Amino acid sequence: MSTFTTTEPPTWVKAAMLAHLPLMMPQLLWTLAGRWSVEEIWHGLGAGTLRADDLYTEDGRAVLTAGHRAAWAAGIRATDPGRLQQQYEEASVRVLYLGGPGYPEKLAADHQPPVVLFMRGALAALDAPRVVAIVGTRKATAYGRQVARRFGAELASEGVCVISGLALGIDGAAHTGALEVNATTPVIGVVGTGLDVVYPARHSHLWRAVADHGALLSESPLGACGQPYRFPLRNRIIAALADVVVVVESGAVGGSMITATLANDRERPVLAVPGPILAESSAGTNSLLSLCTAQICTGMLDIRAALGLATAGRGLTFIDPRPAPDATDSHVLAALAWDVLTTEAVMARTGSTLAGATMALVRLESSGWVGRGAAGWYRVAMMGER
How far is Cα 13 from Cα 134, in angstroms, rounded to an integer? Predict the structure, then answer.
């Protein structure tokens, strides 16, 4: 049973208890925090005295219905604060709360701040003077991963903190690059699950590395799994912490497009890397550019300009991480031209066998020269063309 009536837990434990309450969505908690402090919310809900039937969410729903009040009061009474405090201390997870010590200034100034923020790592990482978000699709092409990795490495080497959602594809590649340069520049990862629930599981090494070299953040309490609603909410934290958002590759819809919209809402510069018009992985970035909701990004010079570190201009710094193709692969690449071709069509143009054409196309794809879509193979239009 709870020690609620006999022992006063620290404020950070009360904040954690609020995040663990049943039916306590982040939107409801930040709506409550718009009127009361964490202490007031905890005491009022636990004692059943917090009543505000005139308090509504942005979509017009009443926050404190009778069902909510009963569930939250029961949740507080059923929670042992001492046991919860021990759980977080043993997991080496720090609990930050709105208005409390160490809470990031950028988030405190946001119109939708996470009331409770869970963290592993160093508080100093949250005070990085320059932060760039590198985001994109989980279904990244080889070229997209190379660009993200290169951007991450170059930003970290120049003392710029890289932030992402640590998802598969572009996010993971960006953080891999930032960590590879072995710099002292901190990195930040914002995830959509509890800090004890690694998602995706294959990124467990990245989670550890980010926590060791910066800060791993979540709005979700320990034990929270990857429920779909948590990830779009996570993206607002990325947008709020970033000074610039770079979308490397994205489908027409998805988390990175949400992040771009949230960044525009917060008047953060958004940059997008252009891609082939036939590639699904570039549909989102090309749309951002065509709608003028993002600036074009062809290399580090554009990111520096957005950060105010250099005069804007393109044509000087290009991403070209590809190994040069050998003679056989060059023949296939030339035959592909700028068409979208099936493997059989490539065979017809080159006179290659099925095995020869397939192997050459796979090599070209892995090195970032071509992409593969539902209609066939296509050459990737990249800057710095050899």
Answer: 33
